[in-house]
Please model this.
Amino acid sequence: MSGHFPKSNWTSLLKFLDVIGTRFSGGLPNSIGGLKFFEDLNVEGTGELPDSIGNLVSLKSLYLTGSFAGSIPASIGNLTQITDIHLSDQNFIGELPFSLGKLEHLTSLTLDGNNFSGQLPFSLFNLTQLVLVDFSNNQLTGPIPTTVNSHSSLVSLNLAFNLLTETIPSSLGFL
Model:
């Protein structure tokens, strides 16, 4: 199966879309934000993540493969029902949006193998449901937030192959 994602008519009652392993090309159109009932989006493609991704307020799982690039829009913080975000091995750049700290139902966040820079968002480690975080193989800098110690649900934290500075907080031993 191959083709391009349609640029319009993304206003149906569609809840699930999985086109992993297909030959769809091009990015997600901005009109995808019209899918208000979307719960699960699994896409292999290219291009940037549109700002309208923040309109998918029912989304619970976001899984992207292929060659997505650009930055993650701050509107991702509007996805208040999301539990899983998997954006590994893409070409994303820039700083991680502070708005990730608004995703109070988030349990798994894998952003490894990208080109993210800047510091880890301290707000992220205040999320009480977060179990798995993988930011390995990026260009992140600065300290590991000391707020990690207050996060009792965290089971896996992978920060390998970044440019983090300062010492590892002793509070990590309390997880």
In short: Residues 2 and 23 are 4 Å apart (CA to CA). The longest strand covers residues 61-70. DSSP finds no helices and 13 strands in the chain.
